[in-house]
Structures are given as structure tokens and as C-alpha cells.
Amino acid sequence: MNGVPILVALLLVGIIARSNLIATAACVLLIIKFSNLNFIFPLLERRGLEVGLLFLLLAILVPVASGKVTEKELLGTFTSLPGILAIIGGALATHLNGEGLRLLQIDPEMIFGLLIGSVFGIVFLNGIPVGPLMAAGLTALFLETIRLFK
């Protein structure tokens, strides 16, 4: 079966690295594959990123909705150095994410290396896996930097 060994490897990597997200994603894809629900793959490919980002944004915005963050604190974002740096960081991160998405569209096989790197970061650097897009964005930045010096 096409892709099954790679998904099983990702499942094992996720279990060994104690990354519930990687293990669950691989497991869900294996279930879809073995259930002959392959028509779901194009939908996930087209809209999965948007749905994932929606839930990420929902989780991040809960403090605003619950009133833990006030309008005054939000306005401080525009007038304080940490707030201004956060705005710049957000702009740069979204640019890198866009570059990462383009890289993954051109070279989708890179995802396995990005996931292995993420697992390495989780296990050895105490990192948090928020998604392969930023990793792909950094990879695109590294590749572009190398191209400049060639």
C-alpha cells in the first residue's frame, strides 16, 4: 500500500518521541487509508491547514473572549517595545510560513525531514510542535541563504 510504511514510521516516531500530535495524525491517516475513505485526502490537503489554523487561533484568542485580556492591554501592544516587537515577529513569522508552504508545495517529500527535526526538537530541546509550516519556512530561509553564498 502506497504511503503506509511511511505513516507507520511516523506513528512509531510520534509514540517514541511522546508527540501525541504526530502519532494521532499518522493514525488518523492510516485509518482513512484502511477504511477506503481516500476521497477525504484531497479535502484534507485543500482545507486541512485552514481548519488547523482556525483551531490554533481559537485557542490563542480564548483569553480575549473570556475577558482575561482587556482592551487597554491590547492597545498596549501598539505602544510598548514588546508589543511592537510582537507585531514585527508576527509579520516575519507569517512571511516565513508562506515561504514554508511554497517549499512544501514544491518539495512535499521534505515533510518527513521536518517531522524528524520536530521530534528532535521536542525530545532534546524541550520544544513544542506547533506545525511543520514554520519549520518549512526556516528551511526555506536556510536554503535561500545558502543560494546567496553559492
UniProtKB/TrEMBL annotation:
UniProt membrane topology term: Multi-pass membrane protein
Annotated GO CC locations: plasma membrane
Record HAMAP family: UPF0756 (MF_01874)
Cellular compartment(s): Cell membrane
Keyword Lipoprotein found: no
Keyword Membrane (UniProt): yes
Superkingdom in the source lineage: Bacteria
Family recorded in the similarity comment: Belongs to the UPF0756 family.
Keywords (A to Z) from UniProt: Cell membrane, Membrane, Transmembrane, Transmembrane helix
UniProt-listed Pfam families: DUF441 (PF04284)
Protein name: UPF0756 membrane protein SAMN05660706_12750
Stretches that traverse the bilayer: 49-67, 74-98, 110-143
InterPro entries given in the database record: UPF0756_TM
